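Troubleshooting: if your tokenizer reports a length mismatch, compare your output against this known-good record of 189 residues.
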Amino acid sequence: MSLPQRFSDWFAARGWSPRAHQLAVLAHAEARESVLLISPTGGGKTLAGFLPSLIEISGQAERTGGIHTLYISPLKALAVDIARNLEAPVAEMALPVAIETRTGDTPHSKRQRQRQKPPDILITTPEQVSLLVSDPHAAFMLKNLRTVILDELHSIVTSKRGVLLSLALARVQALAPQAIRIGLSATVA
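Known-good structure output:
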């Protein structure tokens, strides 16, 4: 998966160049391989995690329906910040990508709407993934899932939340066996 022109132009407009680890994540995604990226805070990890999805979604001739990318953050506040930060490049490149959050604070009416018309990218928490996979509409919502992004892995893996997330991800994998995982962490012991 090479960097399309609109993405190259977006990087250039900011005076940036894609970092080696961002391009490496793209290469793994193109090969449909799961990957763990360990990079210091401020190193462009989050963008590296989302680039394959943004490129793939923006290159689709038509929408396939369902969630394309499931981003899981251990913190509700981080999920909301990620959504806000991701909306900027999506808007600046005029990408046809719908981004929504689902946290414990998400109103029931929004969750109902997400069941009927799932966003391309759903940004959520481990607890919400457990609720999502137990929903009767889970198979519909996840039928075209291509990528699961697991952020801040170092804060989840050794906890009870990590065990519960592993169980939920096993269900996600059963519903969407084609999905790859992109793990992101600043520090993994």
